[in-house]
């Protein structure tokens, strides 16, 4: 019995030391985060975006029009925080969770996310949900051309080639449920980095269980019974309705297949892929 108690005590002590070490490792960058948030809060308090306030927050100075002071300020009482409307899923494409956390805490990398989930299922929050992370790059989805400003970015510790762990996906589902509940994010707005940046990004990759997420209400999926689309159906129109950027048609097709038909790796439309697209097109147009 004493051996069991000893092992439990030792395991708890190791977890505690690991947690303390992690907090100590990022203590300095946590301070930088807090300082930047405080500076942004000061800008929000200003009735006008003065050059001094914006410079203090590290924001670009406004032009001459932005420096005008002839407006009369009347503060409305009807407002709240802007809320995210999309969740974009990524894989880290790095070798370890520590490498990823370091990448996101180095200023020179200019990349970040709101959450990172490691292979053991541990969830790291790096940024308040209301703040804008730099995770989507120049991606676009439908009419949204600044995805960073409208989304929450979640990174999964995965090099892009390996399967996702069960605990990792289970805790992702729990996090998605929280986000969907808190911000009323539409089911169809849970998407991948590869969806919003076809030809440039492929994450979260072909091993990602999109169907499982869709079964829980996070993203669209096609029905088991499919119908052949009519001859008049234009697949590029279908991709655009879903949200894909079709300026590079080949890249958009491959991105769609990576998400919904990962067994197909060419840009050629097969009867099955067309039926899947048509089924999703009908779902999207009847939401």
Q: Can you give a write-up of this model?
A:
With 287 residues, this protein is α/β, with parallel strands linked by helices. The protein folds into 3 domains: 1-59; 80-218, Lysozyme-like, CATH 3.40.80; 235-285, no CATH class. It has 10 helices and 5 strands. It has helices at residues 2-25, 27-45, 51-56, 97-104, 166-183, 193-196, 210-215, 235-242, 249-260, 271-285, and strands at 86-91, 115-117, 123-125, 151-156, 190-192. It has a 5-stranded mixed β-sheet, sandwiched between helices. The longest helix has 24 residues, at 2-25. It is globular, with a radius of gyration of 22 Å. The chain starts with a helix and ends with a helix.
């Amino acid at each position: 019995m004493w051996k069991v108690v000893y092992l439990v005590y030792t395991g708890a002590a190791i977890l505690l030391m690991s947690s303390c070490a992690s907090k100590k490792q990022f203590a300095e960058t946590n301070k930088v985060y807090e300082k930047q948030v405080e500076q942004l809060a000061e800008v929000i308090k200003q009735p006008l975006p003065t050059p001094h306030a914006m410079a203090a927050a590290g924001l670009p100075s406004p032009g001459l029009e932005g420096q005008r002071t002839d407006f009369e300020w009347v503060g409305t009482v009807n407002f709240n925080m802007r809320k995210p409307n999309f969740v974009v899923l990524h894989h880290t494409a790095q070798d370890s969770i520590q490498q990823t956390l370091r990448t996101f805490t180095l200023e020179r990398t200019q990349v970040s996310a709101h959450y990172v989930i490691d292979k053991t299922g541990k969830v790291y929050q790096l940024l308040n949900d209301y703040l804008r992370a730099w995770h989507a790059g120049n991606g676009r989805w439908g009419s949204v051309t600044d995805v960073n400003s409208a989304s929450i970015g979640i990174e999964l510790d995965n090099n892009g080639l390996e399967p996702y762990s069960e605990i990792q996906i289970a805790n992702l589902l729990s996090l998605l449920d929280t986000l969907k509940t808190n911000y009323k994010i539409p089911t169809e707005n849970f998407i991948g980095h590869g969806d919003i940046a076809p030809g440039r990004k492929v994450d979260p990759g072909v091993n990602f269980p999109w169907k499982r997420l869709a079964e829980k209400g996070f993203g669209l999926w096609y029905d088991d019974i499919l119908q052949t689309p009519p001859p008049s159906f234009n697949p590029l129109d279908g991709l655009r309705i879903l949200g894909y950027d079709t300026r590079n048609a080949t890249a958009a097709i491959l991105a769609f297949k990576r998400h919904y038909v990962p067994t197909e790796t060419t840009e050629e439309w097969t009867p099955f892929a067309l039926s899947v697209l048509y089924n999703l097109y009908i779902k999207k147009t009847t939401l």
